Amino acid sequence: MTATIEIGFIGLGTMGTPMALNLLKAGTPLVVWNRSKHRSDNLAAAGARVVDHPIDVFARCRTVILMLADEQAMDAVLARGGHDFAARVCGKAIVSMGTMSPDYSRCLSDDIHAVGGVYVEAPVSGSRKPAEAGQLVAMLAGDADDVVAVRPLLAPMCRQVFECGAIPAALRMKLAVNVCLITLVTGLAEATHFAKSHNLDLTQFAAILDEGPMASDVSRIKISKLVCGDFTRQAAITDVLKNSRLVMEAARDAATSLPLMQASLALYAETEALGLGDDDMIAVIRAIEERTAGSHGKSS
Ligand SMILES: NC(=O)c1ccc[n+]([C@@H]2O[C@H](COP(=O)([O-])OP(=O)(O)OC[C@H]3O[C@@H](n4cnc5c(N)ncnc54)[C@H](OP(=O)(O)O)[C@@H]3O)[C@@H](O)[C@H]2O)c1
């Protein structure tokens, strides 16, 4: 894998666009495709070759990075289950960086290997801002040689890469990280709701959290968004709801109880039902506010 060989990149959403831009900035020649064509404009301006169909990416590139929303998007792009699947993936290395279910990933890996392709899981921790800064943390899983071959490609997007073992170990690790992230941000939203309902000085509340022992990159970004009511998306409610469901499915498979995730899942579902699916995950505060309003209604 050298810098003169074109690399494919499919999925130019909130995460994929800054990730692909960082690859280009580092001199990686990219061939890109996105379902909604206008989202390729920034990449074209930065020097990527934009093609009209995913098949053109697979035809040109031996390595194709996918940063797609979910399993349906993956299957659509790979033409999985159709005649074109083998033609797209045979002899190719498919690197999936989105968050999918570990079971799905294991089956996909089997299917790709069965037709002579290579598959590497490379989910990432970090949302839009770390993606823009090339500061994601990647988790890799796959056959050892494939992981070694793919690892250098990720350097412009990531500050650290961890090798987790065989598929689906990277996705299992990613879900464990998500338990921490989702419950942390839900907790910040609930704490902000508490502070608001006691008419506390929210600027001071944020400053105390930022200076205190629990502060982290995530808490600083999210508390500032919560205090200003800036719901611009870094990680969408719909995506966090999807990820919460993936965590709960995996927990059920392992007969594991996750009470905080259970509560979070319900709140993200309620937030989406309020029509806030495209907003940032901090919009979960709206579902918490609704519950407060509902409990006042009951007591009056
Ligand atoms: N945002 C985060 O903080 C974050 C962090 C770590 C991991 N992740 C994971 O990374 C993945 C991408 O996240 P994101 O925030 O970038 O999501 P996003 O902004 O919603 O982008 C999703 C991408 O998938 C494409 N897509 C969706 N359905 C498709 C289909 N049926 N066929 C072809 N393409 C399809 C979208 O194309 P269109 O542009 O046409 O819609 C878009 O390029 C997800 O698995 C997410 O869980 C997200």
Structure description:
This protein is α/β, with parallel strands linked by helices and 300 residues long. The chain folds into two domains: 7-167, NAD(P)-binding Rossmann-like Domain (Rossmann fold, 3-Layer(aba) Sandwich); 173-299, Orthogonal Bundle (N-(1-d-carboxylethyl)-l-norvaline Dehydrogenase, domain 2), CATH 1.10.1040. Helix content is 54%, strand content 13%. It has 14 helices and nine strands. It has helices spanning 16-25, 41-45, 54-60, 71-78, 84-89, 102-114, 128-133, 144-150, 169-197, 202-211, 217-228, 237-253, 259-273, 284-299; strands at 7-10, 30-33, 49-50, 63-66, 93-96, 118-121, 124-125, 136-141, 158-165. The chain has a six-stranded parallel β-sheet with strand order 3-2-1-4-5-6, sandwiched between helices. The chain has a three-stranded mixed β-sheet with strand order 7-8-9. Helix 8 links the parallel strand 8 and strand 9 (158-165). Bound molecules: NADP nicotinamide-adenine-dinucleotide phosphate. NADP nicotinamide-adenine-dinucleotide phosphate is lined by residues 11-16, 34-36, 39, 67-69, 72-73, 76-77, 98-99, 124, 127, 234-235, 239, 243. NADP nicotinamide-adenine-dinucleotide phosphate (NAP) binds next to helix 4 and helix 12.
